[in-house]
Known about the structure:
Blueprint: H1 3-51, E1 69-74, E2 77-82, E3 85-93, H2 94-99, H3 101-112, H4 116-119, H5 122-135
Antiparallel strand pairs: 1-2, 2-3
Helix pairs in contact: 3-5
Amino acid sequence: MSESMTLTLDLDEVEKILTLRAEREEKARREARIQELNTNILAAQEELRELLGGEERKRSKNVSAAVHFLVERNGDQITIEVKGRPETHEVIDVAAIRENMTKAAYGYTDKHIGPRDVVGNKGGSLMNRLRAAMAA
């Protein structure tokens, strides 16, 4: 083998080594930048917590306790009851519900649970149950 050929092979190896070194340095720069950005994000989150009064924003509390409706269709009538409260048992004609389901649902919940602005959208939950019973 001639001396120029040996020199060429050595130059190719040096070039590969330099390329690998440059790739490693670039990877290290990217990782350092990512770490810097993560640190900035954490600092911004901490500052936001302090501005909000020391706590993160949380979901608001429920307006009222959960209510489960028992709804059953018996021919031309639908029976409604709040689970665990037999004194709320009521029978409503299907025709009245077909005429105005919203009025029937909110009338029942206003009477047995409380007004909408106090207890939340319990009438909407009852309407879903009534709709399912009507379809069955």
